[in-house]
Amino acid sequence: MNDLVARKERVAVAVSGGVDSSVAAALLVQQGYDVVGVTLQLRPCHEEFEGRSCCGVDAIASARGVCSQLGIPHYVLNVTGEFENDVLRPSWEEYAAGRTPNPCVHCNRNMKFGRLWEWAQSIGASKMASGHYAQVQLSPFPHIRRGLDPNKDQSYFLATLSPHVVERLILPIGHMSKPEVREVAAQLGLPSASRKDSQDACFIPVGGSFPEYLRDHFGGEPRPGEVRLLDGRVVGTHSDARMFTVGQRKGLGIGHALPLFVVRIEPECGTVWVSDRPEDLAICRMWTSPAGRFLLDPVTEPFECLVQTRYRQQPTQALVAPTSDGRLDVRFRAAVRGISPGQLAVFYQDDSVVGSGTILLTASTDDAMG
Fold first, then answer.
1. Cα–Cα distance, 113 to 301 (Å, whole number)
2. What pLDDT digit, counting tens, does each position of 243-287 carry?
3. Separation of alpha carbons 166 and 186, rounded Å
4. How far is CA 79 from the centre of its chain?
5. 192 CB contacts (<8 Å, ≥6 apart)?
6. pLDDT tens-digit map of 12-41
7. C-alpha to C-alpha distance for 111 and 156, rounded to whole angstroms
8. CB burial class (10 A; 0-12, 13-18, 19+) of residue 323?
């Protein structure tokens, strides 16, 4: 895009006050865009969260300072109500069903690239941007690609964005490494150059955990029950099954000769199944809901791809096939540990996101490979 066209195009940049979003905004200013900074306020100002939040009062103040230094306007978009209804409440419903939610994925889709995009259009912006380490590919269809820095790649979190959103998205630092971003920030004299990374602290309140916060926030009767080994032996009790996630090791509160891992949760009766053998977490097969299938819509034939079920997880080769009831049947070429229903599975071919789906069911037996 030439400078003349760029100067006429307004871009709304999600600015958290951190180094990544600050450099993203600065690069767009250098390229001649009409840049507007916006910070999403996700939680009420009186709530305190652990660590370095990307959405708290301190982040708003830092973002305002960055935008002032860059000479661009800064707005705060209060989406606390939408965040509670579209991210927090569905997360609590997932915990209540014995599944593990991924609030960051829902926040990106519904808040940062949903509500923000609606607001951006209202002020005449034709594009929006963020400091995510991922890349936009417009051909043959708009989709997300991995960021070039394998240690920071965030394509997993953007995998559910629709092609309509992706084609209007700019990711200015997706081709850069974290050290390069910090170097640019230092050269520009940005105060965020040495600021530590945020830790998704908007989901972790001071002195507690995310599920504890949701239980206190939304209420409901506790679901106490037994903690059992896979052979049926009772090794302890707990106060609420909704406080556990598959693969959890810490915080079980049970004395045992070997470390215990949560393998399965039965929220109806409150039983939490655990094992002291890590191999019992191995999953050979799973079924997902079809969602965000940019390059494979509709899925009519089996296809090979790499599957990633957690952020920063090493992807695993798998065969993905459609089922008669509309789900996707994923058969791993090698067992994967710690897969939890409710989490997002992202499908890659080379470095392109070709689809995604919410994990519904898993199977751990060897004969599940078929």
1. 31
2. 898 988 888 888 888 899 999 999 889 999 999 998 999 999 999
3. 30
4. 18
5. 17, 18, 19, 22, 62, 66, 185
6. 999 998 999 999 999 999 999 999 999 999
7. 16
8. exposed
Name the CA dihedral angle for 333, 337, 341, 343, rounded to a multiple of 10 degrees: -90
**Are 7 and 32 a contacting pair, CB within 8 Å?**
yes
Domains of the chain: 8-203 (3.40.50.620), 221-276 (2.30.30.280), 280-369 (2.40.30.10)
Residues 204, 51 contacting (CB under 8 angstroms): yes
The tokens describing 168, both together, are: 């209007």
Amino acid at position 231, single letter: D
Catalytic (active-site) positions: 107, 202
Q: pTM of this prediction?
A: 0.89
Q: At residue 167, what are phi and psi to the nearest 5 degrees? A: -70, -15
Task: Return mean pLDDT, the chain.
Answer: 88
H/E/C letters for each residue in the chain?
CCHHHHHHCEEEEECCCCHHHHHHHHHHHHCCCEEEEEEEECCCCCCCECCCCCCCHHHHHHHHHHHHHHCCCEEEEECHHHHHHHHHHHHHHHHHCCCCCCHHHHHHHHHHHHHHHHHHHHCCCCEEECCCCEEEECCCCCEEEECCCCCCCCHHHHCCCCHHHHCCEECCCCCCCHHHHHHHHHHCCCHHHHCCCCCCHHHCECCCCHHHHHHHHHCCCCCCEEEEECCCCEEEEECCHHHCCCCCCCCCCCCCCCCCEEEEEECCCCEEEEECCHHHHEEEEEEECCECCCCCCCCCCCEEEEEECCCCCCCEEEEEEECCCCCEEEEEEEEEECCCCCCEEEEEECCEEEEEEEEEEEECCHHHHC
Which amino acid is located at 138 in the chain? L
> 298 vs 333, which has greater pLDDT?
333
